[in-house]
Structures are given as structure tokens and as C-alpha cells.
Amino acid sequence: MEAYHGEGYAKEAAKPAVCWAKSYFDIPYLVGTAEVDNTASRKVLEHCGFELEGIKNLEVH
């Protein structure tokens, strides 16, 4: 909902979820994706410790 855009709720929810997933599952890494033009989602991923590894065109059907 647009009324909540920019309030930081995604950052607040995503970071603990990423920390939980890393500690709960025995996995070597997590992959986060966002549209290249979606600056807000990319900032949330960066806030959660993700680093840009490259840009790929994902075809979603």
C-alpha cells in the first residue's frame, strides 16, 4: 500500500528474516533479487547485507 512506502517497514522486517534464515538453515548463501530500477528494494537488500554481484535478466512467467 502506497501509504506505507518509505516508512522503513521493509527494512525492519527483512533484516531479522535474513538473520533468522542464515542461522536456522545450513545454507552457504542467500540470493536476493530486485528490479534494476527498483531503488527502494535494492536499498533494503543492501541494508540486509546483500552485495551486488551482477545484473541478470530473469524471465518470469
Ordered list of secondary-structure elements with their pairings:
Layout: H1 9-24, H2 39-47
Characterize the structure shown:
Helix 1 (9-24) crosses helix 2. The chain is globular and about 35 Å long. It starts with 8 loop residues before the first helix and ends in a 14-residue tail after the last helix. The protein has one domain (2-47). The protein has two helices and no strands. With 61 residues, it is an all-alpha fold.
In short:
The protein is an all-alpha fold and 61 residues long.
List keywords for this structure.
mainly alpha; 41% helix
Question: Which assembly state applies to the chains in this document?
Answer: single chain
Low-pLDDT stretches are none
Radius of gyration, in angstroms, nearest whole number: 13 Å
**Mean pLDDT reading:** 90
- How far the N terminus sits from the C terminus, by CA atoms, comes to 24 Å
Task: Count all strands and give the number.
Answer: 0
What global shape is seen?
Answer: globular
Mind describing the biggest β-sheet?
none
Helix content: 40-55%
Task: Write down the domain tally.
Answer: 1
Order of helices and strands: HH
Q: Strand percentage, roughly?
A: under 5%
| Structural class by helix and strand composition | mainly alpha
Report the total helices. Answer: 2
